[in-house]
Design brief:
664 residues, 6-stranded antiparallel β-sheet, elongated, alpha+beta, 7-stranded mixed β-sheet
Length: 664
Amino acid sequence: MEANDKHILYRMYLTAFVVLVLAIAVAVKLTNIQVVEGEHYRKLAKERTVKNFVIPANKGNIYSSDGSLLATSIPNYKIRFDAVAPNQDDFNQNLQPLCDSLSVMLGKPSQYFKSELLKARSTKNRYYLVARSLSYTQYMRIKSFPLFNKGPYKGGIITEQRTIREHPIGLIAERTIGYERVTPNGTPDGKGIEWAFKDYLNGKDGKRLMQKMSKGQWKPIRDENEIEPQDGYDVISTIDVYMQDIAHHALLKQLQYYEADHGCVVVMETKTGHVKAISNLGRDKNGNYSETINYAIQESHEPGSTFKILDLLALFEDKKADTNTVYDSNGGEITYYNRRVRDSKKGGYGKISLARGFELSSNTILVQAVYDNYKNNPKAFVGHINRMKLNEPLGLQIAGEGKPIMPQPGAKNWYGTTLPWMAYGYGVSMTPLQTLTLYNAIANDGEMIKPLFVKEVKEWNKTIKTFDKEVIVSQIASKETIDKVKVVLENVVKRGTGSKLYSKDFSMAGKTGTAQVDYANKANLYYASSFVGYFPADQPKYSCIVVIHKPSTTKGYYGADVSGPVFKRIAQKVFTDVPSTNEVRESDKSNKLQDANFEKYYTLINKENKTIPNVVGMAGMDAVALFENLKMKVKIIGQGKVKKQSIHPGEPLQQNKIIILELS
């Protein structure tokens, strides 16, 4: 009995010891958690229940010089359905009305939606895709449908919102307006104005501290944001929508007729350097044309005969020849270092003056004039090019400018044939915009100015930054030389290679160009047709260049035939049809409605119905842009998204009426 008691006592001691050890271990662990690892776990708990959410800043808009929207941010919605969320009675009662509503809105049979939603219910699909790419008004409409109007928990509607960048005028000038994106490997990338001015447009994101609630929901901890978002600024471009529309369609028509590979056109305001229109169209494998590459800025190639203007500028400025200096075309063919220079006219032009040789674009006349006068001192000729800064990029506001190539005497790429080949635009390389800048300087009485694509950055009605005229070269040549060259350029249109473009009612001046491209490989040889000049000839207001690559040779390839008509169409339309208000006419707007992007935007502003749209929930800057395009006056209170509007949706639209938007 005594031994038995002793055994029980040992077991009690052992149990007590084990309990004591466990208690000590628990105490040590609790102390370790609270003291040693306490900070880590407190931080982890806070991260899981409290965290900062990013409040995206509203991106600024891009406007044309006449106030039209070129790029704006528009909310885009995707609707999904949680088929498990509604109770059976609500689902059964609202299924048919919901399917009927979806059918009317989305254009599919009601039975299709009924079958899909029943299937989603039976498979317990909690993320069934109902619709994508909805505008704000479409989202508000679908949100009011039977069942969906009960909200996410009882009705099962799931809303995914993102902001997309829209171009209200469609594909016109799309490459110059540009884009900003992140590549698949996470690298920021972009083109055009969007990319070049991203620091102004993007603004700064805000932060708001929120706490996790039940069912994965989060609520703000306090009313104020930790960091308030700063909306992006608006960028005012130099583009004129009306002129852009003319240039785009004139180029497109010619590309289609000549079945050309690609082409570009740029219209620039002579005195300011403002690019009023720029179009770049390339042909895809299906024969359709779209803006894929900014050829006017990027594509540096041999300009051909349009480069001959430098021959006259150098010869006249150095007084080595004059307009009436006579040269012999030598039967239309001359030879330098066993390589021949030919005229397009078989047999040449006989003995003619230098000015007449330029008007007829005679290669033999211009090459002789340059070679005979500069062969012993080519640096003198190239020096004119360098002083005009044509051997350097323009330094544009938009990235991606092609580099000019101008051989220098004494360099490795200078040969015996270099000087004569330069004289008629070969062995050198320039972008269309660089060539236009030279001709614009002539139109501008010798002052060469940098092309501008953006003239101002604004915050609402407050100017943040302006971009003024920037002079590259104050005087590329004397007034005497410039005046002589102007006369010759006008005569090119009156009686030279551009005579088909002449109109007694409207004066133009310029130069045709027909350059062979990839001539070293005969199998790939093709022509680049161009025309560059300015209008009106007597008091130049705009300069313009048109370059079309690889036109069908069966239809024509000379600059006067292919590119010249585009130049003439633009010049005449700008000065004969342009409205005095400098706004796009209603007929032009209706034409643009054929473009899908513009149609989506037009639907958003509800202009056809002449009623006030619902902008609650929309970004403040987007709502302001919307109402301003409806010709209404907008007053805002606060920042962020619209939470209240003073005029109710659906009321009649009245231009110049004030609407007050209260922002969150």
